[in-house]
Design a protein that fits this description.
The protein is of the alpha+beta class. The protein is built from three helices and seven strands; from the N terminus they run E-E-E-E-H-E-E-H-E-H. The chain has helices spanning 56-65, 113-123, 140-179; strands at residues 5-11, 16-19, 25-39, 42-55, 71-84, 90-104, 127-129.
């Protein structure tokens, strides 16, 4: 069955980060999603508050850069949590298991706020997923370095390649010219003179 949820909203509280016994990170928060609509010509808003769970590297990144009020786009699946409270009563609730997220607006890092702004201006928004394949915040420096190295290598190869090819062409042209017989080296074959008024019986020179 298809189970896919996409939401855009603002976090209602800071990320609550904890680690399981196996070392996996889990971050819990909630998102407020507001729908605006008109009812009989009157503008109204409807807000839903939904619990969300981040896992793995995504949870650590969310805890580092997202805070209460941060705007974020999340993609994930709807899941049902079931447990018993202190009184032994069965409880359940629905929440979103976040599989990927995109930070919207300007995120803030309590530890590296200044540097983070410069990195963000170089790369743009950050996309993260629970499989630890993420681009953007914190990794764009390597990304830009990779591009700069490629550009540098490309320019070097292009320049060296074009110059090398041009030199080869000149060398080939030079070799071709050297292999062409010069005028002084060509021995012209003399064509015998023929007297058109001579007798027919006279032996021709050829």
């Amino acid at each position: 069955m298809f189970n896919k949820v996409v939401l855009v909203g603002n976090l209602t509280r800071d990320i609550e980060l904890r680690y399981l016994q196996n070392g996996s990170a889990v971050g819990k928060s909630a998102i407020a999603v507001t729908r605006k609509y008109n009812s009989n010509g009157e503008k109204k808003e409807e807000t839903c508050f939904i619990d969300i769970d981040f896992w793995g590297k995504t949870a650590e990144i969310a805890n580092q850069y997202l805070h209460k009020g941060s705007k974020v786009l999340i993609e994930g699946r709807l899941k049902l949590d079931q447990w018993q409270d202190q009184n032994g009563q069965n409880r359940s609730k629905h929440s979103i298991y976040v599989e990927s997220m995109e930070m919207l607006g300007t995120p803030q890092n309590s530890q590296n706020g200044g540097n983070f702004g410069n990195q963000n201006s170089n790369f743009g928004g950050g996309n993260f997923n629970s499989q630890n394949n993420f681009n953007g915040y914190g990794s764009n420096q390597g990304y830009n370095g990779h591009n700069s190295n490629n550009n540098q290598n490309f320019n070097q190869n292009r320049n060296s390649g074009s110059n090398f090819g041009y030199s080869n062409q000149n060398n080939n042209k030079t070799n071709f010219s050297n292999n062409t017989p010069q005028k002084d080296d060509v021995q012209e074959e003399k064509i015998p003179d023929i007297d058109v008024n001579a007798d027919i019986d006279e032996e021709l020179p050829f």
